[in-house]
Amino acid sequence: MIELSLAEIADVVGGRLHRTDGSAVVTGSVEFDTRELGPGGLFVALPGERVDGHDFAAKAVESGAVGVLAAREVDAPAIVVPPLPAGQGNSGSVALTGDTDGSGAAVLAALAKLARHVVERLAAGGLTVIGVTGSSGKTSTKDVIAQLIEPMAPTVAPPGSFNSELGHPWTALRADASTKFLVLEMSARGVGHIAEAAATTPPRIGAVLNVGSAHVGEFGSREGIAKAKGELVEALPEDGLAVLNLDDPLVAAMASRTKARVVGVGESAGAQVRAADITVDDEARASFRLVTPEGEAPVTLPLHGEHHVGNALSAAAIARELGATTEEIAQRLSSLQRRSERRMDVTTRADGVTILNDSYNANPESVRAGLKALASMSRSGRRAWAVLGVMGELGEDSVTAHDSIGRLVVRLNIEKLVVVGQDAAAMHQGAFQEGSWGEESVLVPDVEAAVAVLHDQLRPGDVVLVKASKAAGLWRVAEALLADPETNTDDSPLNSERSNGGHA
Q1: Dmax over Cα atoms in the chain, in whole Å?
Q2: Contacting residues for 344 by C-beta, under 8 A, at least 6 apart
Q3: Model confidence over 163-195: pLDDT tens digits?
Q4: pTM to 2 decimals?
Q5: Which residue of 328, 341, 376, 465 could cross-link 356, Cys pair, CB 3.0 to 4.6 Å?
Q6: How many helices (H) does the chain have, and how many strands (E)?
Q7: For the residues of 177-191, what is the DSSP string, one character each?
Q8: How far apart are CA 481 and CA 358, in angstroms?
Q9: Alpha carbon distance 210, 195 (integer Å)
């Protein structure tokens, strides 16, 4: 963060000083975990399910913080923020567990004000804010964007999917006077949430990846989702850039909702940045010709799954806007690393069993993408397993969506399906009704039962996809399959860098 005194911060957030004259200057990072604090930091006191950050104010100062952003008086120098007006609370993408009195929402609102102040000052000095949204692929695309533009100038991007009302301003406050690019995910669980995020960190470049059915139970329809996602391009200035996926009609239609210049990406012939001659190898890694107005260059993505082509094109359009050549973009795309955990995290054990851990979250579109990658990896004769759990927040479409996934498993000739949990039972029924399956599909009650089936039936050389919404906890299946260090080895270069994400 840029250096600010406690008095300046109090003025920005509308708070009052407590146990300080305000002259102390924040020279370090802004943190909500005392373990992450260093000298000159600012501690953000938030309530939690088990503990309240306000109770750790003195410890924060002992750890190096010069002050605390708090909702009430604490035993340390602090900026005490006012309560929110009646009726306002934490209504964004992730509510604070334990925020029974609204104090957490008040602190988050103050943190957002501070982030906006810092970003506006940095933008005046040349900072470019890049926002990414979509029903799926935001985190992977954010990681790709960062890797394409980091060689050009200092870049800040969030770890993992840290895109909540806490993660969004926290990430923005990592930027300082040296930062030139700030890459942010824009997520929402309702109309207005992306507009609020964009107001906190006004973007100059915005990319919309797709409009799927994630959270359709909350938005009511894909059109409702499109309305929310389009808030990103509506927030762009006239001299900004909107990157739109022309292969998705609901995204392409957003061109009429922005004042900014539009660049289309996709496989469509009308896309300014497009992919041609796409092929996928037996490890589900895509190769294509990157075509831009300036020329073309070959790309071989080291990421697993053809769906990464669209993500790469959006990232390429942004890097092109910021000055990278077509050849530079292609070279960087071909040397990407996986940065965020549990997203097509491919690991091969010593016995040849390969696990595709894509268990961070799931919606119908991302599950289809994972299944297609699994099918590609089994083309060489390997036996394929799909271990799938519930896809949450689909509303009245839930049964139909789960049924269609089960049928797709059969159509892709995936040999084994393990459905975990009664909430996902329609997957099992769909698979059974689609094909003349018997024991090929099994419905098990929980993670432990799924692990038992796999330990009993896996053979050397099998390939296993593990995917479900976060609440299903299927990451534990993948971890169990990789638990024995004596029989497992990781031979994928993409797994050399582990993410510290998973916050949102």
Answers
A1: 76
A2: 140, 303, 304, 305, 308, 338, 356, 357, 358, 370, 373
A3: 889 999 999 999 999 999 999 999 988 899 999
A4: 0.91
A5: 465
A6: 17, 22
A7: TT--EEEEE---SST
A8: 14
A9: 17
